[in-house]
Amino acid sequence: LENLSINQVIVRNLDNEVFKLLKLRQPYIPKVSVAITGTNGKTSSSWYLAQICKINKIPTKLTGTLGYFKNLKKNKDSQLTTPSNLDLCQFAYSSKKNKFSFISEASSHGLHQGRFNNFNVDIAAITNLSHDHLDYHKNYKSYVKSKMKLFNKILNTKGIAAINSRLKNYNSLKKYLMKQKTKIITFGSKDVYFYEDDNLYLYVFGKKYILKKFELLNNIKKENLECAIACALAMKIDINKIIKCLSKLKSAPGRFEIINYKKKKSKIVIDYAHTPDALENILKSFSKNKFKPSVVFGCGGNRDKEKRKKMAVIAKKFANKVYITDDNPRDENPKIIRKVIKKYCPKGIEIPNRKKAIYEAIQKLDINDTLVIAGKGHEKFQFIKDKKIKFDDYKIVKNFIE
Asked: In which element (H, E) is residue 207 found?
């Protein structure tokens, strides 16, 4: 820059040089670092893991969609699931001996854009893989490739991989990790998994533990808990200590949050489900025999357009009453988004105003019914064109029923 009165240092790679300065100021890395990726379940799995650590008095920092936390006490909000490289390192590293373990959500955007550059993790986990963010990645193969960077670029050579046996590419990922001589913990089968008959059991490395006074699990919670347990074991937390705290674990805000509507003996579920896979899973979780839950949902603007048809077909198949409304339309015309959903889910009732849609859905609830309000979860705002409007699904439901 010409005519600048202060000294300038010209560098080839700004991120690398800033990281060198950061390391001078904060030279101590976390005691243990964990990164969790996947299409769905990153937030829930990391939240369960952070609770296991807190109950067992392990100082922990957590960053992800819900913000920045120290021992689950919120420091600040986060605009990104995976923060910028500088923000990530500043939060994780310390100026004096680091007593904290560090847990982070690793998004496909974050991995692709190098937000974990200069940051190796000790434990890498993957929850699942399905259709998402194809507006950015262009195709599913590219999306999966970005996720796999966690294992082939970010995970320490002596690190541990926690992988879900339900993954379609489980065998190829396992083969790659074995070739790299990476230690693997498989959850969902083999190393860590739940089993139900009249009781609930947890199998860990071939040993069976009965879980008393523990409610039977839906598939989503089961999968996310298995991931958290696998990561906790990789952190060398004793299995008996893990089991003791399982009944105390709570869902993350906006993830499977259940509000009991006593007037109609019904459940209202707030969930972040904004992908086809997540929407199908949560609707199936509350289906039994011929009973199907109802759903309020929309799709975000300026995002992956392919999933609108898929989510509409899923709502048509797995929901009883469907209320089509606005999510975060952003710069797109919300009417066009709703029109696509309505085309593939003709039984859907179109109510553009999200608040009115929620009210209408609650009013039309039958006795012993279930309503899923999907797509926004923990979010506190709705984005319409250049407006950022205060909007909280949970608060709207609570205010209405009270």
From this structure: strand 207-211
DSSP state of 330: B
pLDDT at position 268: 97
Name the pTM for this structure.
Answer: 0.89
Distance from CA of residue 358 to its chain's centroid?
23
pLDDT along the chain (402 residues), means of 10: 93 90 96 95 96 98 97 93 94 96 94 91 93 68 88 95 94 93 96 91 96 78 96 98 94 92 96 92 93 97 92 97 97 96 98 97 97 95 94 96 92
Please return the burial class of 165, using the count of CB atoms within 10 Å of its CB with bins 0-12, 13-18 and 19+.
middle
DSSP at 115: T
Contacts of 400 (CB under 8 A, 6+ apart): 358, 359, 362
Q: Could you tell me which residues come within 8 angstroms of residue 137 by beta carbon, excluding any fewer than 6 positions away?
A: 108, 112, 143, 146
Instruction: Give the per-residue pLDDT at 133.
Output: 60
Sheet with 183-187: strands ordered across: 73-76, 67-70, 60-64, 101-105, 33-37, 121-126, 155-164, 183-187, 192-196, 200-204, 207-211
pLDDT in the model for residue 216 = 62
Structure-token match 């008393």, residue found: 212
pLDDT given at position 140: 79
What is the C-alpha to C-alpha distance for residues 214 and 228, in angstroms, rounded to an integer?
17
Token couple for 209: 């533990």
Q: What is the DSSP letter of 293?
A: -
C-beta separation of 121 from 154 below 8 A: yes
**Residues of the chain by 3-state class (helix, strand, coil), percent to 5:** 35, 25, 40
Distance between CA atoms of 73 and 334, rounded to whole angstroms? Answer: 36
Total residues found in the chain within this entry: 402
Distance of CA 116 to the CA centre of its chain: 18
Write the CB contacts of 14 (distance below 8 Å, at least 6 apart in sequence).
Answer: none
Report residue 116 as tokens: 């974990």
